[in-house]
Amino acid sequence: MTAGGDPAALGQLLRSRRERLAPADVGLPAGLAAGRRRRTAGLRREEVALLASMSATYYTFLEQGRPVRPSAQVLDALASALRMSAAERRYLHVLAYGPGSSEPASSASSASAPPERLDPGVADLVQRLEPFPTLVKGRRWDVLAANPAARELFGDWSAGPPGERNLVRWMFTTDQAREVYLEWEPEARAMLGRFRLSAARYPDDPDVRALIAELQRDSEHIRDWWPRHDVAAIGGSGSKKLRHPRLGPADYSHVVLQVADNPDHTLVTYSPTAPLGSGQ
């Protein structure tokens, strides 16, 4: 890894996005030269280089994970050429420059994050939001606090050992998550994409790296989806279809808030909006 970035992961992201696009998606003919047959799906490297106005050799170095340190302008050109979303663009910059950087970093790779300590006022707020299910997750997506309503809806994370009080682990390794989330697969994909974007801010944190390794070991879905480098931004609000163990299925609205003094701590609170009925 170069200072502040992860060129190998950057290359994997570029390759995965290149392979998802067809020439027609970006306004290119079927091939760059007559007589050349396309053996595999996706754009060729030279086609991406053409779209991004750079040499094919330079783009190849990037995709191979060589430490060539691209400029912000190069990354923006590649993001546009590969039709990246806003979340993917942010992820691209994190992989190139390191967490929290918009330009190449001059310092060494990021240090391990300190132990997480939840502000007592935030913990108190979680309890005061009862009876609305409310929780706080940390940088690894460990559940740092949850009120009784959240524990009833999602399960009592505090009953398990510390290493298992994790939202992503719960989502991918428990039957309960599939009972609670009525649209489990799209919700699981979205959660993994948001977690991936968050985890990219801590490329050298041994706890985060250990969690990712454990998730890949324990979940077939994560082993299949993780190499795709899908990312998603954390939204401020939304809705989900959930099944409450006592009240049954319902639409829930949720609001997501970052703690001002510690942006790695995220509070999520839910409220039911309408029952779905026994037929759903």
**Low-confidence residue ranges:** 102-111
Overall mean pLDDT stands at 85
Indicate the proportion of strand residues.
15-25%
Largest sheet: 5 strands, antiparallel
Strand order of the largest sheet: 2-1-5-4-3
**Rg:** 21 Å
- The sequence of SSEs as H and E is HHHHHHEEHHHHHHEEE
Structure description:
The protein contains twelve helices and five strands. It has a five-stranded antiparallel β-sheet with strand order 2-1-5-4-3. The protein is an alpha+beta fold and about 280 residues long.
At a glance:
This protein has twelve helices and five strands.
Give me the secondary-structure topology.
Elements (H helix, E strand, L loop, with lengths): L6 H14 L24 H7 L4 H8 L8 H10 L4 H12 L22 H9 L5 E4 L5 E4 L1 H7 L12 H7 L1 H6 L3 H16 L6 H13 L1 H6 L11 E8 L3 E12 L2 E14 L5
Antiparallel strand pairs: 1-2, 1-5, 3-4, 4-5
Helix pairs in contact: 2-3, 4-5
Name the descriptors.
15% strand, alpha+beta, 5 strands, 280 residues
